[in-house]
Design goal:
alpha/beta; 47% helix; binds flavin-adenine dinucleotide
């Protein structure tokens, strides 16, 4: 049978039909476009938790996309395989003219894309990749001497200068869906086929709430109220367009926009300094003698430290896969400073639990909290969990929400904060002296 000639738009962390750069270019290519998503065995098979709600979220999003594609008499092709094997399979079914993707910057993704690019070249298939998940990428925001920024404030100033000089280009991909390949419904494995339980993610739809953005600086630090956007999961999987979000943010001053710039700052750091994946940004922090007490670590994970704000945060994380930013800082500081446990342990636990887990942001923020990152809180800044609670949750609304039947002294404190603070400062100082 003759193979149909197609172009492929391979979705990864850009799961939307609106304002999608790769999809827009594919649909303009003149060849009918097949949308493909691959549940990557290399990633999925490593997830031990078979009720992982990130997988459920991706799955629900794909089902929604599929129903829109049906209206255009097209279909998504969803495969469960390694990307290399999946592309070999697609290549045996269709004559692929070109593959369109959006850039992906994490170390694994770069390697994966390189493999597919090579496979495409072997088969004379064109391969195009576009910037989509950020406003500025890789080396687009650099110091005047062309080296990467390692401090946020000057980076953000340069980012804003560049932003004011350039108009945002939006991609009206959603208007071109008639250029999709006409097709009957194609393969669509069930969650069970992927080895996961059939559960719901419970992630609310993305909502770019202008009122929230306008008042963000007043609401962002109060964990008891819904004063942040909850868009992190959507930014992670591309179910919201960063261009649309930044355009709205920029209309309301700096507070919310700065957070989106932090996201790009950490992506740029990871890109230019990939050693941060396993090591502190600054080498001298490599010598800290962590205590790494496993029992204490388990208590921290479960939210049983006896410090209400820390415990409420960890219970929120365990229950819903999200934690308020201020409490991420408090729990992170408690782990690294009060318990003197290696920040990489905390980073790994958050990576497992957070629905919005993003290597660059998680790593950058953990290094920030531990004081060893590129633009960190100074190492001697140790959050006092009691003071943080009275300042940011004075009526204990957040604490009572996440610690059921909360009452004072509900659990003994696993460590005395004052002693632990001194112990942490000594451990950090010793590490610097041993350099
Ligand atoms: P909002 O306050 O509404 O902010 C809007 C967006 O700005 C966020 O969705 C996010 O994309 C970005 N943003 C906000 N704060 C930061 C920040 N400090 N660094 C980078 N980007 C930011 N964020 C993740 O997206 N993934 C992670 O894995 C992650 N791990 C973290 C680990 C620690 C220890 C800490 C302290 C922070 C971490 N953050 C992470 C950053 C931040 O806590 C979350 O982005 C934020 O809480 C998500 O909620 P929101 O969408 O309501 O944020």
């Amino acid at each position: 049978m003759e193979r149909k000639k197609i172009s492929i738009c391979w979705l990864r962390r850009d799961l939307r039909l609106q304002d999608n750069a790769a999809l827009y270019h594919a649909l303009n290519s003149g060849t009918p476009v097949l949308l493909v998503f691959i549940f990557d065995k290399n990633i999925l098979d490593q997830l031990e938790n078979k009720t992982d709600r990130r997988v459920a979220f991706i799955y629900e999003t794909l089902i929604e996309l599929q129903s829109t594609l049906y209206q255009h008499k097209s279909s998504l092709l969803v495969l469960y395989d390694t990307p290399l094997k999946a592309f070999k399979k697609i290549n045996s079914l269709y004559e692929i003219e070109a593959i369109f993707v959006n850039h992906d910057y994490e170390p694994y993704a770069i390697k994966r894309d390189e493999e597919i690019k090579n496979l495409a070249a072997e088969h004379q298939i064109k391969y195009y990749s576009f910037k989509d998940q950020v406003i500025f990428e890789e080396s687009e925001v650099m110091k005047p001497d062309d080296t990467p920024y390692t401090v946020f404030t000057p980076y953000s100033k340069m980012w804003k200068n560049k932003f004011s000089e350039n108009n945002i280009t939006f991609y009206s991909s959603e208007r071109l869906l008639t250029h999709l390949l006409k097709s009957k419904p194609l393969d669509f494995p069930s969650l069970k086929d992927l080895g996961f339980e059939d559960i719901r993610s419970n992630v609310p739809d993305p909502n770019i709430d202008e009122n929230l953005i306008a008042h963000y600086s007043e609401t962002r630090n109060t964990p008891a109220i819904d004063g942040t956007s909850h868009l992190s999961v959507h930014l992670r999987f591309g179910t919201v367009s960063i261009r649309k979000l930044v355009k709205t943010a920029a209309e309301y001053g700096d507070a919310f926009l700065n957070e989106l710039i932090w996201r790009e700052f950490f992506m740029t750091i990871l890109y230019h300094f990939p050693h941060v994946v396993n090591h502190p940004f600054y080498k001298k922090y490599e010598h800290i003698k962590w205590r790494n007490n496993e029992e204490e670590f388990i208590k921290w994970c479960k939210g049983e430290t006896g410090y209400p704000l820390v415990d409420a945060g960890m219970r929120q994380l365990n229950e819903v896969g999200w934690m308020h930013n201020r409490i991420r800082m408090v729990t992170g500081s408690f782990l690294t400073k009060d318990l003197l446990i290696d920040w990489r342990w905390g980073e790994a636990y958050f990576a497992e639990k957070l629905l919005d887990y993003e290597l660059s942001s998680n790593n950058g923020n953990w290094q920030w909290v531990a004081g060893c990152g590129c633009d960190s809180a100074p190492y001697f800044r140790v959050f006092n969990p009691g003071l943080q609670a009275s300042r940011f949750d004075p009526d204990q609304v957040y604490i009572k929400k996440w610690i059921k039947n909360y009452k004072e002294n509900y659990l003994p404190q696993i460590v005395d904060h004052k002693m632990a603070r001194t112990r942490a400062l000594n451990a950090y100082k010793k590490a610097f002296d041993s350099e």
